[in-house]
Design brief:
alpha+beta; 3 helices; binds zinc ion; Nitrous oxide-regulated protein; Uncharacterised_YgbA
Length: about 110
Amino acid sequence: MTEEKFQSEVDTLNRFFTKYCKDKHTNQKNNLYKFKYKNLSFETSISLCEECNTLISYSFDRLKECPHEIKPRCRNCENPCYEKTQWKSLSKVMRYSAIRLNLTNRIKKIFS
Ligand SMILES: [Zn+2]
């Protein structure tokens, strides 16, 4: 995938995890993540609990190693990079936040 795509995937994971963790967990800590991908390097700080922190680090690692130039939806991928248990936890986070973040965006649009 391109550097831009990689960065936007990281942003999406960041937003989804932050939302989920804030609603479901306590004891968040600020974590700094450093990325190097092709010619791109950047850092981002994310406030998450221990559990989410472990899972998001795992997701970032998998993302870096994704062999696809154009990343397919993980569900349709013929060589999925997540192990079953991690995939289950991740899809829980994504489903939860997808609904809520979409709603908030729509509500913002209506009222802006
Ligand atoms: Zn959490």
